[in-house]
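Quick one, T. Sequence first:
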Amino acid sequence: MPKSMLDTRYSDPSAEAVPWGVVAERLERAGVYWITTVRDSGRPHITPLIGVWLGDAMLFCTGGQEQKARNLAGNPAVALTTGTDALDRGIDVVVEGDAVVLRDEEALRVAAEAWAAKYGETWRFEVRDGAFHHADGGAADVYRVAPRVVFAFGKDPYSQNRYTF
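Structure tokens:
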């Protein structure tokens, strides 16, 4: 269980810390995440993707030729965000950590089942050679991000919460 802290400097006086279970559930249920990686030039690269919160880490996949994969080869630091564009309800979540390629085939099979359960048969992957393979012939590496820190931004009332691992 992560250590949590409500930052009262940026929270409504009536706010209470968002329980970690609520944040973890939001990470599990989200359909789309936004990932920020860092280009060789130091500029950020941000793109939407799908992924799964599995156990205690965020997983996502990408082809080796994609910009985010090229960025991660030089700098594994990432931020993954999800939430809602509503101003007065919901929770926005930011996961910060380092993305590490997952090669263990048993762990990849568990991840592949999680993808199919969450997103349907369109996103069913075959696991071989330490990667995901799609029916269309494409291959993707799977990355695991064990959070270093997670932020949750509550909106009713406004709160800023920090969870450290």
